[in-house]
Amino acid sequence: MTTGSRGASPRRVQWRALTGACLRDGISHRTQALAARFLIAACVSFWFIAPHDAHAVYAIAQYGEPKYPPDFKHFDYVNPDAPKGGTLVLANPDRLTSFDKFNPFTMRGNPAPGIGMLFESLTTGSSDEVASAYGLLADDIRLAPDRLSVTFHINPRARFSNGDAVTAGDVKFSFDTLTSPQAAPQFSAFFADIKRAVVVDPATIRFEFRQPNRELPLLAGGMPVFSHKWGLKADGTHIPFDQLAFQQPIGSGPYVIESYANGRTITYKRDPSYWGASLPVRVGTDNFERITYKLYSDATARLEAFKAGEYDALVEYIARNWVRRDVGKRFDNGELIKREFRQHNGAGMQGFFMNLRRPLFQDVRVREALDLAFDFQWLNRQLFFGGYTRVDSYFADSDMQATGMPSDGELALLNPLRAQLNPAVFGPMTVQPETDPPNSLRANLLKARALLADAGWTYRNGALRNAKGQPFTFEILDDSGSGGGMEPVVTAYIRNLAKLGITANFRTVDFALIQKRYEAFDYDMTTIRWPGTPIPGQEQVSRFSSKTADEQGSDNIVGLKSPAVDTLLSALVHAQTREQLTDAARSLDRVLMRGYYVVPHWYSSTHRIAYQRELAYPKTLPLYYEANDWIISTWWFAQPSTVQSTDEAH
Questions:
Q1: Which of 226, 306, 470, 584 has the greatest number of beta carbons closer than 10 A?
Q2: What region holds the Solute-binding protein family domain (predicted)?
């Protein structure tokens, strides 16, 4: 119930993001293939703009210049003098209660939390810029004048955890592997417009593109890199990539696996030979000597374990827990501290997603009626202590959100599609129904009943029925489990639906089963959160394009197939200016919101974090970040007096 994301900060491509969590009042991040999902979130964070002439540079910004000059020493939001040491203990970062592999890039199974700390990419971004990228494994970047290729030179100091130099061959091996059938399909979809990776020399790799696209250099630079020796057997053959389980990954990241047990605990230690510790993009980061994850069986056990001192930091996503359960003696005496931290990631979209593959949801009037039955204002008063704002856009809390009437730039995109679109798209932006006076739930339900009647659903024989006499019945699928927080929300929603004669059944399943059902699109309605990003891009194609609707395991949750949406998606990813990008995003927002594919929920613009008083954080906060990633990457252990000082600064 704070703004979360599918991975790292919107301005960081660091593969510790693979451990990201997204639970907002019981909403779990839809992580069908965890690595692919976090790759998507991280990759779409950066955009490159080509210089007029191809030449090597240390960093690239989409607009203007990067914030940090060539000789910068560290990012502003880190403490370059942070002490190193100590063991940071964390709990489940998501719904995962066990893991069965170390490979986060394949579809089947559940990767260990924190495994992203083992991998790095060619570039990384700063968490206080909207669109910039700085060299990480690469020490310079050369973007061709025609934007049909980007070339990276690999830092000669870059080393994998086994001591081998990172080479262009390893980068190509990573690309070829991730785009093969052995990796999660989202990778090949995301890299579809990268024609190939070419080894220029042992230290130089060139990515060639099928067409000019400002996002493609981002996707290439943000790709995780691993050694070609990962899975290599003594006889020189490789274990198939999709069969890698507990074989030790060989990455270049700051941490390596020290120990693990029973698929429930894992400890990472800082690699004493880590090659990049002195890089400006790494100074002040990775301050813990060890990071341990303990996986608890449910949310209640996890919370009680924190209050008992079993781990060090808790990111709270449930508002009523923050007010009523994250309390007690250790909070009162100052051993545990609670703080809210502002972030600017954008709200994204969270809600009840409908599966258009089910005939029940194919009529837009039905979908709008289901939206009208959701009483956010009551939930916010009764359950959330007034802590949330209703989601009213796919890009809420960002400048990509559509408001008011369409602008001239939006109309230039929408007018050619007029015959395919709901006429309401060309009017004021969709407003979510309210129940605060003078509005009421009763009035909303009367409107919903009229819409349902127009769609052929009328109340008779004790239920809402269609012309064939079939009752309106569906299932709401969720993996929140015990203590997850969604049950009272769904119960209230089901109660309102019952007033319309609709029967909705709430079913909770465990994390592993829900992943299988997502892969097969086996759900009617489900609870999902898509993270926000200040710069929308290729991830929108994965979520909404016609070509992904039938791709097993894709992010197209609703099964949307719309030529008009496909056209707007093309305009979005091929935007040449920030203005064009904004017009495309807002146009897409109008069309999607008028489609009523989701019953939107709520968002918060702060991260809620409770932590042991021995922990400290930098005085300057980043702008675009995920709470768990921020703790892991930039916090440290300090004396209690130091912690108190930094707390008072905020």
A1: 226
A2: 135-550
Lay out the sheet containing 525-530: strands in order across: 503-508, 473-478, 525-530, 349-354, 598-600
Q: For 223-255, write each residue's pLDDT tens digit.
A: 999 999 999 999 999 999 999 999 999 999 999
Q: How far apart (Å, rounded) are the C-alpha atoms in residues 222 and 434?
A: 41
Confirm if 166 and 159 have CB atoms less than 8 A apart.
yes
Is the predicted pLDDT of residue 461 greater than 90, yes or no?
A: yes
Q: How many CB atoms lie within 10 A of CB 252?
A: 29
* pTM of the entire predicted model: 0.79
349-603 maps to which CATH number?
3.10.105.10
User: How far is 414 from 423, CA to CA, in rounded Å?
Assistant: 11
- Is residue 268 within 8 Å of 255, Cβ to Cβ? yes
Peptide bond into 438 cis (omega under 30): yes
Q: Are 475 and 523 in contact (CB under 8 A)?
A: yes
Q: Which CATH number fits domain 15-340+605-648: 3.40.190.10, 1.10.1200.120, 2.60.40.10, 3.40.630.30?
A: 3.40.190.10
Residue 207: strand, helix, or coil = strand
Of residues 94, 88, 451, the one with CA closest to residue 288: 88
Quick count: other Cβ atoms within 10 Å of Cβ 582? 22
**pLDDT, tens digit (0-9, with 9 covering 90-100), for 133-185:** 899 999 999 989 998 999 999 999 999 999 999 999 999 999 999 999 999 88
Whole-number Å distance between alpha carbons of 466 and 460: 10
Look at residue 55 and tell me whether its pLDDT is greater than 80.
Answer: no
